[in-house]
Amino acid sequence: MHGIILKTLQAFVVDTYGEDAWLTIQREADIEEKVYVPVTVYPDGDVYEIVRTAGELTDQSPRTILSQYGKWVVPALLETYDLHIDDEWDGLELIANIQQFHTSLRTRDMTTLTTPRIRSERVSDHHVRITYDSDRKLCDVARGAIQGVAAQFDEELVAEEQTCMHEGDDACRFDIRRTDAAISTTGTEATFEFGESEPTTEAASGGPDV
Question: Global pTM?
């Protein structure tokens, strides 16, 4: 797991739940000796242990914690990858170009890091489809990040998760639309919401390394 994920996950916990919560999570997850550095690669299990423990402390599921983190981390990631972002892009355009960020990261760190497989497809001016495929099954981060992008760009985006690996599908597929494009020809607004599925045992306990 890329160090920037662990570093920002720590910052998210401290910002959202406080320094004492992070110290407790470190102790309970047995990671007290670790200092996360963005340029270093860490075991995937650290992420799973952190979110599992955070969930237990806050009486939430690990998948809820991951979604909260995904929304929270967007501003930091936009700052980190600022050089890859066109100033004229809106939120949906950023999502449509997410694949190039992961391609760049995969190429740069190919010998030490396995990045998720993300494909972005521009269906129309107001509709983008994202396909996420990774043995880590961290689609909840993507779910939260879509909300974070909408908030960061002050843009109304609605999304529907068509398939999910936690439900046995081969990949997670998200359809993201602007709300002004989600109006049917009859004049009623279509609904695009994420399902509230429970975390699987694999996701909560660590899952396979990639």
Answer: 0.78
Residue 172's beta-bridge partner residues? Answer: 132
Cβ contacts of residue 188 below 8 Å, gap of 6+?
none
pLDDT digit string, tens, across residues 88-119: 889 999 999 887 665 555 555 544 555 567 88
Give burial (CB, 10 Å; 0-12/13-18/19+) of 163.
Answer: middle
164: left (phi over 0), alpha (psi -120 to 50) or beta: beta
Burial of 1 (0-12, 13-18, 19+ CB in 10 A): buried
Are 87 and 144 within 8 A, CB to CB?
A: no
Strand pairing class (157-163; 127-133): unpaired
